Every structure is written in C-alpha cells, then in structure tokens.
C-alpha cells in the first residue's frame, strides 16, 4: 500500500509525515509550515526541461576544447576525447579508461537513463518497478563522479601557472560539460521516484 492510499503526505522540506485533510484545498506541514503535495508539482515537465537542456549542452561539451596547455609560447587545445586518445598514446591506459568512463560513458548513461524513466512513466511501459528504481538510484549516486574532469582542470589551472613558460587554461568545453553534469544531477533530484510506483499500480489495476 502506498502512503497516499493511507492518507499520508510527506513534507518535501522537513520530511514530516502528515495526515491528509480532504476538506482543505491547500494543506501545510504541521511541523515546518511548508506546503504539502501528494507528488512534486510538475515533476515530469521540470525533469524533461533540465534533461533536454543538458542534452543540448552535451554537444559543445564534447566538441569544444575542455582545456588549453600553453608551453614555451605554443598552445595545444584538447577536447575530452582527444585527451583520452592522447593518454592512450602515452601508455596511460588506466587513467584514460577512468576519464573515458567518468566523462563520456557516465553522462551518456545518465541522459539515456533519465529519458527511459520519464518515457516509461509517461507511456506506462511494461517495465519492472524494481528495475526502474534501481536505475534511478544508480543515476542519482553516480552523477557526482562526472565532475572528475572539472576537478582535475581546476587543480591544474591553479598549480600549473608559470607565465609564458607553462600554463593551463580552461576551455568553453569545460563550462558546457560542468553545466551538463549539474543539470543531470538536478534532473535526477527533480524527478519524483514515487511516480514509478504510481505507474506500476496503474498498470496492475489495468491488468
């Protein structure tokens, strides 16, 4: 049985459980006074907006240089993929694998995974609720690791600064990539996972 079937609403601010009052149109939390909703308002629309914005920014994040290395007056710009290829050419395959997984595979999986969750909920696709919730939890957990490249660039920019001898500058690709990571994290937070169980309950009822 779902909490909403038992007449219980959870506060999104302090997580207090409140009994639903059907006579009140707008109910507030008994502890913090926050407005109560059975489900997050416009959860699907907000998640789609964040996801589509991240998908658009994902293109320049991979095509534009993520950083530029200046050495003795000459500069070399690298995208994420060209950086991975260069690491492989220098024999640093484990590092290249980590960068490839964290910066390319993980963001791609997050974009596809969130889209699959949204489509499955909206179109009532026959998909196990347990599979959906496991996918959601994995997306929510792994999202932060995509910032690995951004952290590395930030450290290199701060450490490698020797004027005209050597310096490292962040590129526009880094800004786009950081935006993709933040937007996909927000999309995962905006999506209400309880809709998965509502969808499953509706499918079971229809059957």
Account of the 3D structure:
The structure is a single chain. By secondary structure, the protein is mainly α. Helix content is 57%, strand content 10%. It contains seven helices and five strands; from the N terminus they run ββαββααααβαα. The chain has helices spanning 43-63, 80-89, 93-122, 129-142, 148-159, 172-190, 194-206; strands spanning 8-10, 17-19, 67-71, 74-78, 166-170. It has a three-stranded antiparallel β-sheet. Strands 1-2 form a two-stranded antiparallel ribbon. The longest helix has 30 residues, at 93-122.
Which secondary structure elements does this structure contain, and how are they paired or packed?
Elements: E1 8-10, E2 17-19, H1 43-63, E3 67-71, E4 74-78, H2 80-89, H3 93-122, H4 129-142, H5 148-159, E5 166-170, H6 172-190, H7 194-206
Antiparallel strand pairs: 1-2, 3-4, 3-5
Biggest sheet statistics: 3 strands, antiparallel
Number of helices: 7
Estimated share of beta-strand residues: 5-15%
- The end-to-end span amounts to 18 Å
Give the neighbour order of strands across the main sheet: 4-3-5
Structure in a nutshell:
This protein is mostly helical. It has helices at 43-63, 80-89, 93-122, 129-142, 148-159, 172-190, 194-206, and strands at residues 8-10, 17-19, 67-71, 74-78, 166-170. It is 57% helix and 10% strand.
Q: Which key terms come to mind for this protein?
A:
about 210 residues; two-stranded antiparallel sheet; 7 helices
């Amino acid at each position: 049985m779902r909490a909403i079937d038992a007449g219980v609403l959870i506060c999104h601010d302090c997580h207090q459980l409140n009994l639903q009052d059907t006579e009140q149109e707008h109910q507030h939390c008994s502890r913090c006074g926050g407005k109560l909703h059975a489900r997050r308002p416009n959860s699907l629309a907000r998640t789609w907006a964040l996801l589509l914005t991240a998908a658009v920014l994902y293109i320049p994040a991979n095509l534009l240089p993520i950083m530029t290395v200046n050495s003795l007056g000459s500069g070399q710009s690298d995208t994420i993929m060209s950086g991975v290829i260069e690491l492989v050419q220098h024999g640093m395959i484990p590092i290249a694998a980590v960068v490839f997984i964290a910066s390319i595979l993980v963001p791609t999986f997050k974009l596809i995974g969130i889209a699959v969750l949204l489509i499955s909920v909206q179109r009532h696709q026959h998909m196990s609720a347990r599979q959906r919730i496991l996918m959601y939890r994995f997306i929510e957990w792994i999202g932060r690791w995509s910032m690995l490249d951004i952290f590395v660039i930030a450290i290199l920019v701060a450490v490698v600064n020797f004027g005209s001898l050597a310096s490292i500058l962040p590129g526009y690709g880094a800004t786009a990539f950081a935006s993709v990571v933040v937007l996909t994290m927000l999309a995962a937070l905006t999506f209400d996972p309880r809709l998965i169980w509502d969808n499953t309950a509706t499918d079971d009822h229809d059957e």
